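Predict the assembly for these two chains.
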Amino acid sequence: MENTLNTARLEPVWHTNRRIMLLLAALALFLVIFPLFGPNSFYLHLMIMIFMYAVMAQSWNVIAGLSGQISLGHGLFFGIGAYTSSFLFVEYGVTPWIGIFIGMFFSAVIAVLIGIPMLRLSGHYFAIATLLIGISFQLVFQRWEWVGAASGLWIPLTEESSWYALQFHDSKVPYYYVFLAFFIVSYFFVWRLSLSKIGFRLRAVRDDYQAASSLGIDVSKYKIIAYAISAMVMAPMGSLFAQYILIVDPDRMFNLEISILVLLMTVLGGIGNIWGPLIGVAILIPISEYSRIYLGGTGGAVDLIFYGLILMLICIFRPAGLISLFPKHILERKKQR
Amino acid sequence: MTFEIILQAIVSGLLTGLIYALIAAGLSLIFGLMNIVNFAHGEHLMVSMFSSFWLWSLLGLDPLVSIPITILLMALCGVLTHYLLIRYILKAKMLIQICATFGLSIFIRALAQFLWTPDFRTVDNPLLEGRIEAAGVFIGQPQLFASVVCLFAFVLLYLFVTKTETGLALQATAQDREAAEILGIPSDKMFALGWAIGLGCVGVAGGMMTNYFFIFTDVGVNFALFAFVAVALGGFGSIIGCLYAGIIIGLVESLGGLLIDPSFKLLYVFAIYLLVVIYKPQGLFGRY
């Protein structure tokens, strides 16, 4: 595909284009000092949602963009993360800081269990399977008494804000920094991953699995690895979001809309490119939060009409996403002389 | 648990299975023809049920009377889907094709919810009502009639695809697009025809179900999921496989609901999907 941007091409940018690096450093610095300007809690909330969805979309980008498999039920791992950390805290008083990692572990295990049979198949069958499995999990959690069935789990409030229980009642600023930290770590991790041997093998599998396998790459193994990593990137966001809203229920945590949004944001920004998800999120989250203010929360699914339309238009006109609108010389390696 | 209850479950599973089969046949036809899975299939079914409902509610046409109109509307809808969306993504990567039809499904469902609200609707006093009893088994007349019509439509579809010249041209296009074009079969027209027939099948099923089923904006979701399962079970692009697969799914759904726990009906069907794709990925009647 000539109009598809490879993450591989981005690599030399870090060596050749100092301006972009400076720009990113300035952006990171701005994000760190942003709360010092005393923004009101709506802007903090907006930023927190941007960080959260940026990581979630990046997680989807790992499985779809790097390894070329479409997952239509990626919200599943969000729910697993949320339920694991909340359940451990509610039942056993385990701090969410540990719960987050246990949630990541469970997500990875589930991803491997799904991946072993499913990722051997052609992409359509995997996409359908993920859709079915995502719905099955919601169905099971709606009926499962042990984790509160349909009413879900209520995370007990601590007396005061506490880093141990990861609850902050008087300000959103600590949440902001927690989400920011996970955002930066996740992006750095995926960036390193895409430049690692695993990353290159995954792209080889995605672009031509027969050629890849003739070079000795175990195709299904690498697809499963990508799926597990993708699940592990997604899970902490579920845990953190549960701490942020302090309630976990199957309709919110296993919502199909999560799976739709991560897909839409990545495709909109640019699938297979590490900055694609961020661009999609930076455009869609403000629109969605503002439309929630002006059109009301559950107002007739107007935002979904809009999302579906964008998704189709992007697929028709810009399959490589909005990032392909940037001038090529910024994103691509300089021609070797 | 008596024999009659089990017999009842088998009969009703068989009847719904025939409807699943026709819906799946529409999906399978499109999938086999152009290797594109229509993720908006359930939404198309929902549209066909609403069109049948509005024809009844606004013009007073009974769903049985308006069936030809519903089929034509859905065929038109299929042609439009092809020319407005699918034609542009034919050469795109599979990833983009999945996203595009998935986007279409989000769009149609959200638009329906916006226009018609998520309320549940029913058709009051349809022409066909009541039930009949045979050997201790009760069968709703509309259900029975719907299944018979779906089976009839299925047979027509099968004869069309395997016996007529146009049907053979469709199959030729499915097998090798370029070779078919060299022989003078316009693939673009064939694709449009495939969409028209595929969604026409959905129109038959939707129109018949309007008689007795609730009509609401999420109605198509489960039917589409079952159709995906049926296509996997029947085998890629196999029309006749859909018939058996649809019946198996209908039986598993109703017997599983009766014997184990009715709230997990969906899971039993999904389990079939997982088993099939793991152990027999080519399906029961697959070509590959």
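The interface with chain A takes residues 31, 37, 39, 85, 88-89, 92-100, 102-111, 113-114, 117, 225, 228-229, 232, 263-264, 266-267, 270, 273-274, 277-278, 281 of chain B (CB under 8 Å). Strands of chain B lie at 131-134, 137-140.
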